[in-house]
């Protein structure tokens, strides 16, 4: 186990109807004038918008709104939000939505406290020193951004999907997680979310660090729960319990409970970011394509770890004589699981084309620290290309 | 699953040698004048005292010390510490030690910010509104007090071992966990700590709340880790890895990661508090006596849950036709496990006597909300007596 710091100071308020506490929580964290950031009409249909705004009113808070955040959030709306904050002097941001809305609010928060272009933080030209407090009302179980120290935005100039450097400053003050709000999600979004959560754990689970027994088991506990809950949530969209399991798993998968003391991988995420940038596919859908291909490529490096994955998560029978067989069976069952959720299987299923691979690699090269990446196995352009090719087979 | 709030804002700094960051962390949390609270000579022998004081000096902090905290911490030293803070104007407390030292520092922290007797907070006569910040350098894996919102002190007037009402205000600002510092613990303390951690999970695991699949699995991940790591730590006292597993498990077992959304039990802890008060036994030793007796008494209420415990934690073969057999086998294996660590088995082993049972019950009655207690099964005086009698058989 390696030395580590674990810091997860966000207050999580979890359960049916808890979004009615939004105003009270803003007050608790000393907010007075709120910019409410959200996406489209879904929060109006499922009642979340009404509940949150009624709660802001009841707490006597001044508020205005910024709507129109899209999946794979773009720089345009961030610039717009920063403008709005500068003009109106908001001192608190509420993100009502999923990862895209939260990341947009985070970027508005630090962008508004900085005189230059907020993109400077992404290119490394400036360092985040101050930000506006963000509170979250989560409407989809997936990203983990509700408790995280990171934020990903696509810069429209150049189509660059980049993350800002991690900092505790941008962790939300509070996050309200009401599983009921996720019951009305389209099946595809529920499935994408499950794939995303699963991938967040895999990025931590597949580690070269020895002696991390406890976090290994925590990872397995989370993965088993997703394998159990996701099909239930799809079969019975209104059932509370599988939604609650997925939503809480989404938080724990990304607050680093499962990642402390170990080198993490994150290669699949890095490759997927290119898919989202090129094809505007949902993050979870892209991960469902890349993660099994990544596993297929890297498992020979440590077949025992993948055999353990197959045995502990998918109940494969351990082949003690040929553990690599169990390893492959685990990867196969992951594919079957993703497919059963209606997720895409191949690069082509999300509109991807092998002809674009060189461009994707070039794109990756433009990022600060573009290559190499990956903690379980170091990835250069060659490895990235190999995984993308495997994902199309 | 029930609605819940999860808030664990303590910063955990974990690993070999990390106590050298104490001064830097006090500065980070705006401390300037430190009272260093500790127990006896062990922190001088294992180098922790030297490392911490050197680090306070290096950070340019003024500091003084208060030593002599004992196991099952008593009110006397709390009064002494409060006096010291009032005279010298300390603005930060460092607890260098285990649960007893941390709880003493917490009580000094809120006692010093209050004009009356600090015991008023325990009797319910006053409510904690302000406290001095506490930082922890942990030297034993067990109590979980390093991240918790609670604190237990024995009032010498009347020999009352009571907890103060829980409040986020008393959570430590930071906690440094260096597993290396626990390598020099006597075997008995390592074993007591393991029993205490195990019990902290059981108090949450045995719940009447349905649909808590994820936390059930997290609890099992932790319990399996303790069953694996504790014998290793005893067999190879200097090995880092089992010490690290135990220490991190101790934190997770008590920061409520494993307890959210469910009714918790805590009957074994309540009964054990009487054993500690009467016989001054170590908390973990008392729990090793009470927990299996409690299980034996309550398992018929939900044999399936105890069968799951036996199967998932101790690898029992599930008897699908007679799950209560698997339940009993799980409890038997817990006794074997505790015994293998050298822990006491019976009431008599910690100097307990059945003749004292009526007095213990009377003692319990004097507490605010003394009876009933227990979330898995409601305990009145009769149930408490039954478990104490079982613990002597």
Give the overall average pLDDT of chain A.
95
Strand arrangement within the widest β-sheet of chain A reads 1-8-5-4-2-3
- Work out the largest interface and the residue count of each chain: A-B, 39 and 39 residues
Helix and strand string of chain A, N-terminal first? Answer: EHEHHEHEHHEEEEHHHHHHHHH
Overall structural class of chain A, as computed from helix and strand content, comes to alpha/beta
Tally the beta strands of chain A.
8
State the oligomer: homodimer
Rg measurement of chain A, Å: 20 Å
Low-confidence stretches of chain A: none
Total DSSP helices of chain A = 15
Explain the overall architecture.
The structure is a homodimer of 393-residue chains. Chain A is α/β, with parallel strands linked by helices and 393 residues long. Helices cover 48% and strands 11% of the residues of chain A. Chain A starts with a strand and ends with a helix. Chains A and B meet through strand 1, helix 8 and helix 9 of A and strand 1, helix 8 and helix 9 of B. Strand 1 of chain A pairs antiparallel with strand 1 of chain B.
Keywords, separated by commas or semicolons:
alpha/beta, 393 residues, two-stranded antiparallel ribbon, homodimer
Describe the secondary-structure layout.
2 copies of one chain form a homodimer.
Chain A: E1 4-14, H1 22-28, E2 33-38, H2 42-45, H3 48-58, E3 62-66, H4 75-88, E4 92-97, H5 99-112, H6 120-123, E5 134-138, E6 152-155, E7 160-163, E8 174-177, H7 187-205, H8 213-235, H9 240-252, H10 267-279, H11 283-298, H12 303-314, H13 323-340, H14 357-366, H15 381-390
Parallel strand pairs in A: 1-8, 2-3, 2-4, 4-5, 5-8
Antiparallel strand pairs in A: 6-7
Helix pairs in contact in A: 1-3, 4-5, 7-8, 7-11, 8-9, 8-12, 10-11, 10-14, 11-13, 11-15, 12-13
């Amino acid at each position: 186990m390696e030395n580590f710091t674990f810091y997860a100071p966000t207050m999580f308020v979890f359960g049916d109807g808890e979004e009615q506490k939004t105003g009270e929580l803003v007050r608790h964290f000393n907010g007075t004038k709120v910019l409410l950031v959200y996406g489209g009409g879904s929060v109006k249909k499922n009642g979340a918008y009404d509940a949150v705004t009624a709660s802001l009113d009841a707490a006597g808070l001044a508020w205005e709104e910024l709507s129109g955040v899209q999946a794979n959030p773009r720089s345009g709306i961030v610039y717009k939000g920063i403008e709005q904050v500068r003009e109106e002097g908001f001192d608190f941001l509420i993100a009502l939505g999923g990862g895209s809305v939260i990341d947009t609010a985070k970027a508005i928060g630090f962008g508004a406290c900085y005189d230059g272009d907020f993109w400077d933080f992404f290119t490394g030209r400036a360092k985040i020193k101050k930000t506006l407090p963000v509170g979250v009302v989560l409407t989809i179980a997936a990203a983990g951004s509700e408790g995280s120290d990171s934020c990903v935005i696509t810069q429209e100039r150049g189509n660059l999907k980049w993350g800002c450097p991690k900092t505790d400053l941008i962790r939300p003050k509070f996050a309200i997680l009401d599983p009921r709000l996720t019951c009305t999600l389209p099946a595809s979004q529920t499935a994408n979310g499950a794939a995303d959560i699963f991938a967040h754990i895999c990025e931590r689970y597949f580690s070269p660090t020895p002696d991390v027994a406890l976090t290994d088991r925590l990872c397995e506990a989370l993965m088993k729960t997703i394998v159990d809950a996701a099909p239930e949530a799809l079969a019975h969209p209104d059932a509370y319990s599988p939604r609650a399991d997925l939503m809480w798993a989404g938080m724990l998968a990304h607050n680093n409970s499962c990642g402390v003391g170990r080198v993490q991988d994150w290669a699949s995420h890095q490759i997927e970011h290119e898919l989202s940038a090129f094809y505007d596919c949902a993050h979870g859908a892209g991960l469902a394509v890349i993660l099994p291909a990544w596993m297929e490529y890297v498992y020979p490096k440590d077949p025992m770890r993948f055999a353990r994955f197959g045995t502990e998560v998918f109940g494969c029978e351990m082949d003690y004589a040929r553990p690599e067989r169990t390893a492959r069976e685990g990867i196969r069952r992951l594919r079957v699981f993703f497919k059963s959720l209606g997720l895409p299987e191949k690069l082509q299923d999300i509109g991807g084309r092998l002809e674009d691979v060189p461009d994707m690699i070039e794109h990756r090269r433009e990022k600060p620290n573009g290559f190499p990446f990956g903690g379980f196995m170091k990835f250069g352009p060659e490895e990235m290309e190999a995984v993308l090719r495997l994902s199309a087979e």
